[in-house]
Amino acid sequence: MNQSSPSDLVFTVKRRQPELVAPAKPTPREFKLLSDIDDQDGFRLQIPLVHFYPSHPSMVGKDPAHVIKTALAHALVFYYPFAGRLREGHARKLMVDCSAQGVLFVEADADVTLSQFGHLQPPFPCFQQLLYKVPSSEGMIDCPLLHIQVTRLKCGGFIFALQMNHTMCDGPGVVQFLKALAKIARGASEPSIQPVWLRKLLNARDPPRVTCTHYEYQQVAVPPHDDIEETQDMVQRSFFFGPTQIAAIRQSLPHHLRDGCTKFELLTAFLWRCRTIALQLEPIDAVRLMCVINARGKKTLGGLEIPEGYYGNAIVFPAVVTTAGKLIGENNSIGYALEIVKRIKSEMSEEYVQSVADLMVIRGRPCFTKARSWIVSNLEHVGFRDVDFGWGKAVFAGIAKAGAGGFPGVSFYVSCENAEGEEGIVICICLPSKAMERFVKEMDGMLEKPFMHSSL
């Protein structure tokens, strides 16, 4: 595997003045309440996405910024809440003021070609130039809910970067919006899937009642000596796992476990164990893993189905807890970690999702537990790369970096091709620099060969 995203790449980006793109036609002026899943504290943050597109012969002479900006105004007629602003009501309840103020849009040019980035996987050099932080646009309340920057490249390709307010949508939700935007950019008059609001489907019961155990929301203090949020010397690196790496990890399992797990479960167990070893925790320290699970696809939810087109947060992240000593002890192989990871899926049920919504109302919409926690979100099949504005599919598309808000312990699994064209998963990890060195060494040892990665 080749190292990608050369960290020494430097280029200049010239940006035009930021502007607000409003819906192309009048839209309803109303207030729309977010669901009790949407407005939890752990979703009150911005998530950055990035898509890289090469030039395309059929699009020569067409300006991607103009095409996308024009399509955006028309897409917002259907997704008009995105053009509004958040307001906070009683008991921290969030709602959207559908004011049609618009989405933040920035047009830019960079003196660099797509090939100069090398093989594309996060983290990306000079990313802050590809999604410029416009002053006073980063907040939750009364700020733009989407921020888009289209950066044209010297080669005729372009980079589409987006920052989304997580209270408005999850991964599948934002991809649904982006595919609608892309379809309109290619000439359609409306989305193929009509957006559905219906956030009341994921509201608390009356009266609310917590009926499940939620280790993901336990109130646990972060010990000062291992608070990686406060560590200044943080490093982001991503790792590609193709068939060769997956097979090597599977071979390390006891025979009775090799065929009974998914690729996601296998990778999560492997990485959680390596990450815990790298952090050098005490054996008695509790460690927590949370896996994001999509509630879509379940037949019913609180007596109501989640309809096609729903673009709100329909995810929960059940947690399992063990000790560092048990997870990485000499007598416990990756098989122990795998058995714990597999337990998470069994926690998922319609009642579990309802219990989360009820917990939010009872406990004032708390954040997830951060102490010695790692959260993983499998976005491999969400379809980021399938977003086609007319220039074909993206050569890379997905979450731009590890972490969420100020918490570095979140990793996203995104589909990707390596330099040889081999399909696999790229996973970005954020750790203190010394811990990252130990993490890579541990992975190399388990895979019995050096593991190439990209880093910043």
Automatic annotation (TrEMBL):
GO function terms (MF aspect):
transferase activity
Record carries keyword Disulfide bond: no
Keywords annotated in UniProt: Transferase
Asked if the keyword Transferase belongs to this entry, the reply reads: yes
Signal peptide positions on this chain: none
**PANTHER family assigned:** ACYL TRANSFERASE 4, OS05G0315700 PROTEIN
**Family affiliation:** Belongs to the plant acyltransferase family.
The protein depicted here goes by the name: Benzyl alcohol O-benzoyltransferase-like
Q: What is the native source organism of this protein? A: Senna tora
